[in-house]
Amino acid sequence: MATDILEILQQPQLTKICAPMVRYSKLQFRTLVRRYDCDLCFTPMILADSFVQSAEARDNEFSTNKNDVPLVVQFAAKTVDDFVGAAEMVVPYAGGVDLNCGCPQRWAMKSGYGVDLLGKPELVRDLVLQVRNRIPPPFTVSVKIRLLKDIRKTIELCQMLEKAGLSFITVHARTPQMRNEPIDLEGLRIVRDSIKMPLIANGDVKQLKDAKNLHENFNCQGVMSANGLLTNPALFAGYSKTPLTCIQDWLDITASIPTHFLCMHHHLVFMLEKILPKKDRCYFNNLQTKESVLEFIDNYYGIKPRVDNKCSELIECYYDIRPGKYFKEVLKNCSDEAFEDFMENIFIEV
Length: 350
Hints:
Elements: H1 5-9, E1 15-18, H2 27-34, E2 40-42, E3 46-47, H3 48-53, H4 55-61, E4 71-76, H5 80-90, E5 96-101, H6 106-110, H7 121-134, E6 140-146, H8 151-163, E7 168-172, H9 185-194, E8 199-202, H10 208-218, E9 222-225, H11 227-231, H12 244-256, H13 261-271, H14 278-285, H15 290-301, H16 325-333, H17 336-343
Parallel strand pairs: 1-2, 1-9, 2-4, 3-4, 4-5, 5-6, 6-7, 7-8, 8-9
Helix pairs in contact: 2-12, 5-7, 8-9
């Protein structure tokens, strides 16, 4: 099922990517943006410890189908057992895992996740190294970071992770203290020039031209968008604002894949932000039921949801939670030569 993500990133053309967004980059939204030239999608950030320990958490946080490729599952983790365990569980259903080292929210930092990990480079290296040693390519292991105020420390971290076998890195070109300020293009350029592995740039991608600029002028293999895609899921297809076809697609997708009302409504709130007049937008944003939302869209645009036959059924995920199970399966099934190749990097110096 998995697609070779690294092979995609190594192509000469721009790789267009949907960012991991808490509550928002779920299967339904990934299905939508893939229809508008998005090449690669990330799941929302998932707490690895909960994912490993709780079937309820797994059911709530992760869903996919056969068309949801290529896919990277992003985890928040701070122990090897949690990150490796979560990675081994999603191997059959994704092309790679990503470690979140960029979330600046207080709860994440207080819990030792997100940007808090940027102050623990040896731990981040160990998390990456252990997944890489247990799960061979083409499955990818990547990290998403923010820039540190001392750019030299960012370079040191990136080079350390590259030596540890990191497949690619995503750089949100702001420091943890920055919010809506313009991204640090010079910092991004310095990091890009300091490593050989593919780099995905993140930040301030609101139009397709922004993505093309980062690709062409900063040599970034991929460009990731978050807020830009929320307000315009057709951004990567070159639209300047959400087209009505996108609204139709969203209604069709959420009519075909079970979707919580708040998720269905909130995405429409974002999509209509630039195309509804303020008065109508305020009214729409305060609607409280699915019926009232559908009635508004029908009356305003003449659009009704349809069952979408292009939406495949959800995959029923079966998780094997035996420690090291993927590693053991690889050893059991590979030849002596393949075994030597797989073991080659286990004692790598970093």
